[in-house]
Amino acid sequence: MSFTVHSLLWLAIDKLKLAGVPEPQRDAWKLLAHVLNIGVDRIPLHLQKTISHIEEQKFENVVSRRANRVPVSYILGYRDFFEHRFAVTSDVLDPRPETEHLIIEALREDFAEVLDLGTGSGCIVISLLAQKSNAIGLGVDQSEAALEIAQKNAQDIGVAERCEFRVSNWFSNVPAVQFDLIVANPPYIHPNVMGALSPEVLHEPKCALTDHLDGLSAYRKIAMSAKKFLKPGGRLIFEIGFDQGVAVSDILSRYFFEDILVIQDFDQRDRLAFCRQNS
Ligand SMILES: C[S@@+](CC[C@H](N)C(=O)[O-])C[C@H]1O[C@@H](n2cnc3c(N)ncnc32)[C@H](O)[C@@H]1O
């Protein structure tokens, strides 16, 4: 017996609700649109129709994955971030909308050379280069698998010729040059709170989330070496956890950076730490 799209959606929504998925209706529609290869806005035109057996099976399969709390972006294979669509897999952090604040802040001043530490999907450095057509960038990550995704994104978004990617443990494999801008969204979650995070987060690479120490070790390591890699007056911008503003400012002041600022997001939560190399 074939179900209409309407009935399939209701069954899916019930299954997602039972699994505790926070927005079951939105996700069921997105997943169905993905399987039918249509925009979500076209679904109402299909509600009374039936779909092929293969499409039905595919839908069942993606709904089951979502019920197992796999993030929607990993199922769809992409995430829209800032102005572009980025390929994502479980090898990279699912780019967060909060990280767009870092892009907005970085774009307030001009830059010619940018370094992105812990680039993951490449969403930060690629978004920046897409806005600044004369700039060049280097994205580094300890994960080779992540860098393959970042490279693909740079190609798809048209900045590959201006962007290099390298395996590196923070600065270990960064050439001895100076950048106008260094950005990083490092793993900053304290290991003690990992257990309280949503089940979706468990599908993301652990090394992208936590440093397994106190959530601040990456800031210390980066701040310790960043001055050598910044031009005079160059900027260092970190994404930080909402409760890390004071601690990260303190780290930056220990290394004599100037103009140290903590910047809040639209929810008035500390989100970025900013500083400058002395001029
Ligand atoms: C929070 S994710 C950020 C990914 C991406 N920049 C974003 O904002 O979506 C942190 C990234 O840092 C990388 N990473 C963790 N430790 C590292 C290290 N010691 N050296 C280089 N990269 C590291 C992880 O592999 C991960 O891709």
Short description:
This protein has helices at 5-18, 24-36, 53-67, 72-76, 100-106, 123-131, 144-157, 217-226, 245-254, and strands at 78-81, 84-87, 113-117, 136-141, 163-167, 179-184, 230-239, 258-264, 270-276. It has two domains: 5-68, Orthogonal Bundle (Helicase, Ruva Protein, domain 3), CATH 1.10.8; 91-276, Rossmann fold.
What features would you highlight for this structure?
279 residues; alpha/beta; Helicase, Ruva Protein, domain 3; seven-stranded mixed sheet; two-stranded antiparallel sheet; 9 helices; binds S-adenosylmethionine
Mean residue pLDDT: 97
CATH topology category name of the largest domain: Rossmann fold
Number of strands: 9
- CATH top level assignment of the largest domain: Alpha Beta
Provide the number of structural domains: 2
In terms of structural class, how would the helical and strand content be classed?
Answer: alpha/beta
Strand order, largest beta sheet: 5-4-3-6-7-9-8
What shape does the CA trace take? elongated
Bound molecules: S-adenosylmethionine
CATH superfamily of the largest domain: Vaccinia Virus protein VP39
Oligomer: single chain
Biggest sheet statistics: 7 strands, mixed
Our estimate of the beta-strand percent is 15-25%
* Model regions low in confidence, pLDDT < 50 over at least 5 residues: none
Based on CA atoms alone, the radius of gyration comes out at: 21 Å
Helix content: 25-40%
Distance between the termini: 73 Å
CATH architecture of the largest domain: 3-Layer(aba) Sandwich
Please count the helical segments.
9
SSE order: HHHHEEHEHEHEEHEHEE
